[in-house]
């Protein structure tokens, strides 16, 4: 009984930590995306005027894509942690099937 409680408590706090970490990272990536888009606009304007630094425009665009991909991955992590919390607390039992399904998909397409 006590071991089960300790395990559930540990899993709960671990999922809570992952949830908070994901929220912070999503906000950070969103800030980086917006700043990179500002830089991109400036570089495109400079390229239009001078015809130079096209590679720099491409580099910033690739950076934006990388930040967007990281944000999507972090959003997935957020929802997995939220589902884990719901499962641990018994709020939504069907989330267990969703989590299992997502994990199965991960292994099928890796």
Model description:
It is a single chain. This protein has 110 residues and is an all-alpha fold. The chain has three helices and no strands. It has helices at 2-50, 54-89, 95-108. Helix 1 (2-50) packs antiparallel against helix 2. The longest helix is centred in the N-terminal third of the chain and has 49 residues, at 2-50. The radius of gyration is 20 Å and the shape is rod-shaped.
Radius of gyration computed on alpha carbons:
20 Å
Strand content: under 5%
What's the number of helices? 3
Order of helices and strands: HHH
Helix content: over 70%
> Largest sheet at a glance?
none
Tell me, rounded to a whole number, the average pLDDT.
Answer: 87
Distance between the termini: 38 Å
Shape by Cα distribution: rod-shaped
What brief labels describe this structure?
mainly alpha, 90% helix, 110 residues
Can you describe this structure in just a few lines?
90% of the residues lie in helices and 0% in strands.
Topology, pairings included?
Layout: H1 2-50, H2 54-89, H3 95-108
Helix pairs in contact: 1-2, 2-3
């Amino acid at each position: 009984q006590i071991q089960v409680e300790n395990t559930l408590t540990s899993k709960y706090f671990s999922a809570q930590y992952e949830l908070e970490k994901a929220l912070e990272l999503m906000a950070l990536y969103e800030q980086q995306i917006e700043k990179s888009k500002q830089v991109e606009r400036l570089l495109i304007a400079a390229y239009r005027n001078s015809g130079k630094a096209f590679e720099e425009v491409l580099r910033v665009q690739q950076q934006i894509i990388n930040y967007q991909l990281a944000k999507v991955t972090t959003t997935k992590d957020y929802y997995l942690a939220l589902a884990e919390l719901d499962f641990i607390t018994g709020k939504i039992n069907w989330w267990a099937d969703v989590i299992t399904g997502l994990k199965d998909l991960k292994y099928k397409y890796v």
